[in-house]
């Protein structure tokens, strides 16, 4: 029997995310940000900044960091750690993978 916790959701094609870029994905009432790292790995976090609810996919992605477009708080998207004020609460992270040319996340 499959549960939500082990269900993978297709988000987009890998080519839809620029290298060192982010992609906004809305699912139900939730928003996620999916990142393509410099090494072409993919990562997923909550989509809204923990300081003020601004979409992180609109922010600047450099290396393994995303900067909030509103107040320049920053996070390491690999583990969700808040690394620059005013962001001080970490983001939730979710497993992400590439299957063929598709990006999938598990958000259970």
TrEMBL record:
Pfam families listed in its UniProt record: Rieske (PF00355)
SUPFAM superfamilies: ISP domain (SSF50022)
InterPro entries xrefs: MocE_2FeS, Rieske_2Fe-2S, Rieske_2Fe-2S_sf
UniProt-recorded Gene Ontology molecular function terms: 2 iron, 2 sulfur cluster binding; metal ion binding
PROSITE patterns in alphabetical order: RIESKE
Keyword line: 2Fe-2S, Iron, Iron-sulfur, Metal-binding
CDD domains with a match to the protein in the record: Rieske_RO_ferredoxin
Transmembrane segments: none
Tagged with keyword Iron: yes
Domain Rieske: 9-105
Classification via NCBIfam families: MocE_fam_FeS (TIGR02377)
Protein name, entry field: Rieske 2Fe-2S domain-containing protein
Phylogenetic classification of the source organism: Bacteria, Pseudomonadati, Pseudomonadota, Alphaproteobacteria, Rhodobacterales
